[in-house]
Amino acid sequence: MKKEDLDFFKNLLDDRLRKLRSNADSTVTGMTKPKENFPDPTDRAAHEAERNFELRIRDREHKLIKKIKKALVRIGNQTFGVCEVCEEEISIKRLKARPVTTLCIDCKTREEDMEKALGV
After folding, report:
1. What distance in Å separates the CA atoms of residue 24 and residue 57, rounded to the nearest whole number?
2. Is the torsion defined by CA of 33, 35, 41, 45 positive or negative?
3. Calpha distance 10→75 (Å, rounded)
């Protein structure tokens, strides 16, 4: 992969990582605020449902942060953009759509077909 492509993806991943960390910080700040008092049980339930939803989103973002960090390591190792299975280059188009991917489209398709066949 060309140096300018690696620089593009490094900047893209760094930016996403910064935004995700900012979201995580705001969630932690929101969780440490004094608890609100809800006289109506319905209001309380709605508040808890929103909070649980936000925590699920943050959990997904935490997993994405791990993938971004691994992708940044691969950029440093110069293995970014190389499929882990067939060791062919992953297309720039695929990397732009999913910069944390570790599989080319053919290997990912085979993996998904196998999961469907096994019912996973």
Report:
1. 10
2. positive
3. 7
Does the predicted model carry a pTM greater than 0.85? Answer: no
pLDDT in tens, 80-116: 999 999 999 999 999 999 999 999 999 999 999 999 9
Token pair in block for residue 25: 């910080």
Evaluate the CA torsion angle 93, 99, 104, 109 in order and state its sign: negative
Contact 19, 58 (CB under 8 A): no
Supply the DSSP symbol for 89: B
Q: Determine the Cα–Cα distance for residues 1 and 10; give it in Å rounded to an integer.
A: 13
